[in-house]
Structures are given as C-alpha cells and as structure tokens.
Amino acid sequence: MTEQAQERTKAQQYNYNKLQKRIRRNTGQAIADFNMIEDGDRIMVCLSGGKDSFTMLDILMSLKKSAPVNFELIAVNLDQKQPGFPGHILPDYLESLGVEYKIVEEDTYSIVQDKIPEGKTTCSLCSRLRRGILYRTAKELGATKIALGHHRDDIIETLFLNMFHGGKMKGMPPKLVSDNGEHVVIRPLAYCREKDIIKYADMKEYPIIPCNLCGSQPNLQRQAIKQMLNGWDKQFPGRIESLFRSMQNVVPSHLADFELFDFKSIDRDSGVINGGDIGFDKEEFAPQQQEAVAEFDPSLMLDVTNVD
Ligand code: SF4
C-alpha cells in the first residue's frame, strides 16, 4: 500500500470514528432525555433493510455494551413478499452479528395489490397491515418497547407535512404509546441527522435492500418538503438545527390553540406569561438569523406550493 493510500485510510478511519461517536452521542442523549430504555426492557428493533434501521440496530448494540441498564434487543424484519425481495440478506447479516432476530413472513403485497385499484396509492393500507403485524409480533416476542428508525429529519419533515397539508402542528414523537394503546414505541435516532446516517451507512457498507420493490410511487409531498429542507440547509446552515430546537421549545401562550392554552381566563391579574405580549415591537433575532431572513430565496418554496 502506498503512503498516500495509508494516509487516506487513516483519515477515513478518523472520520468514521468521529461520525460514529456523534451518532452514538445523539442516540444516547435522546434515549436519556425521553427515558426510552429502562432496566429489563426487551426491545423489538424493526429492521426494514434500509440505512436508518441498520444504523439504529448497530448503535443500539454498541450502546448496550456500555449502558448502565440491562436490556435485550431482538431484531425483527417483516418480509412482505414483495417481488424480488432478497430473503437471505437480513438473516445472513443478523447471523453474522450474533443478535437475536425474527423474520416474519406475511404476504401483505398480494393483499394490497388485490384491494387497491391500479394507479391508487398503496402505502396507507400497506402500512396499516404492517403496523398490525408488528404489534402482534411484539406481543408474541414479549417485547416491552418497539424501536423505529426514524431520525431528526423525518420528524421535521412530518411536522411540515402536517402543517402544509393537514393544518396541524404535529410531528413524530420520539416516544409514545402506539395507536392501539398496547405498546411503547421509541425512536432512538430522533436526534440524529439524516446526512450523518447516510455517510455512516455508506462507510459500514450495510447490505441495503431497495425500498421500491413494491413498485409504489414515492410520496411526492414528502419529497418536496425534503427538497425544501435540503435547500434551506445549504442556503442557511443551522436552520434545520434551529427548527428542531423549536420543537423542543414550544410556547403555547404565544400560539393560537385555545385548547392548549387557556386564553379565555386571562385577565389583568394573570401576570406576565412567558415574557408577555411585546405589543408592537418586533421579535429580536441573533444577527445570523436576521441575515438569513434577509437573504431568503422564495424560489425554494416553489416545489412545495406546487404539490397537489
Ligand atoms: S412504499 Fe411500498 S412497502 Fe412502503 S408503505 Fe408504500 S406500499 Fe408499502
């Protein structure tokens, strides 16, 4: 190996270590902030074969070694019998890791094809079926938590999707009870940036299974929001971080949801709430944020407003 090649390898190793540390740190922080993992937990790690779930399993396995609490991991993949699904990839990979795992085989693909007329979107029925199967599996396996691989950018995208298309300020919770009321669902990667996960998955050379085997079209609304956020990230570094911080720093008294905050009972005796109303004054922002507002390029919004 030439000296230059050796150098490159060292540099790559350095970058890999740094990246792994950051993802581990962010995951550990999210787990602690939301009390995601407790002593004695048996966590069902949902593995789709995409970069996010591979990364989640990897980081949880590594955190398990040094965690102050004892917990078990069991990786679960649902083989939905989509045409061309390479059934051997995940079992081979999971065997090599030595982690407990279960592959659940259920032909939801045929059910969806059968029930949904051609040209209509298949995702909502497909994910409803998948959710039901995963909940049932969690019960069978005695899992106390279900871990999903959504990351920070998924959470922000969902917030914008709900605001733009649903008229609702609602993201994706790092921890919540499932819709059937039976399982605690956690998202350990809630603080991790997608671009870190992409780089990490690339360095780890995971055996990624393509996510378009079902032949479904990508969600155009989500794609448009992703594009908008990526544009912002390039044009205004730090904006995405600020956006996510804002989800952790909500001031209900300064929004307009009268069910979330009791505006009706406010009177002169209520005192100053969260800094009070500043009348006709404008909000003050740090200089960098002011600059970002002044340089805003409205064309970045076009993709979103054009979505049907
Ligand atoms: S993209 Fe395919 S596999 Fe994924 S939810 Fe939609 S229909 Fe199901």
TrEMBL record:
Keyword tags: 4Fe-4S, ATP-binding, Cytoplasm, Iron, Iron-sulfur, Magnesium, Metal-binding, Nucleotide-binding, RNA-binding, Transferase, tRNA processing, tRNA-binding
UniProt entry tagged with the keyword Mitochondrion: no
GO molecular function: transferase activity
Pathway: tRNA modification
Cofactor: how bound: Binds 1 [4Fe-4S] cluster per subunit. The cluster is chelated by three Cys residues, the fourth Fe has a free coordination site that may bind a sulfur atom transferred from the persulfide of IscS.
Domain of life: Bacteria
Enzyme type, top EC level: transferase
tRNA(Ile)-lysidine/2-thiocytidine synthase N-terminal domain span: 43-205
SUPFAM superfamilies: Adenine nucleotide alpha hydrolases-like
Enzyme Commission designation: 2.8.1.-
Pfam families per record: ATP_bind_3
Main localization (coarse): cytoplasm
Short motif PP-loop motif, span: 48-53
Other known facts: The thiolation reaction likely consists of two steps: a first activation step by ATP to form an adenylated intermediate of the target base of tRNA, and a second nucleophilic substitution step of the sulfur (S) atom supplied by the hydrosulfide attached to the Fe-S cluster.
Quaternary structure (record): Homodimer.
Summary of the function given for this chain in its UniProt record: Catalyzes the ATP-dependent 2-thiolation of cytidine in position 32 of tRNA, to form 2-thiocytidine (s(2)C32). The sulfur atoms are provided by the cysteine/cysteine desulfurase (IscS) system.
Matches recorded under HAMAP family: TtcA
Family: Belongs to the TtcA family.
Protein name: tRNA-cytidine(32) 2-sulfurtransferase
Organism annotation: Vibrio hippocampi
Lineage: Bacteria, Pseudomonadati, Pseudomonadota, Gammaproteobacteria, Vibrionales
Name of the gene this protein is made from: ttcA
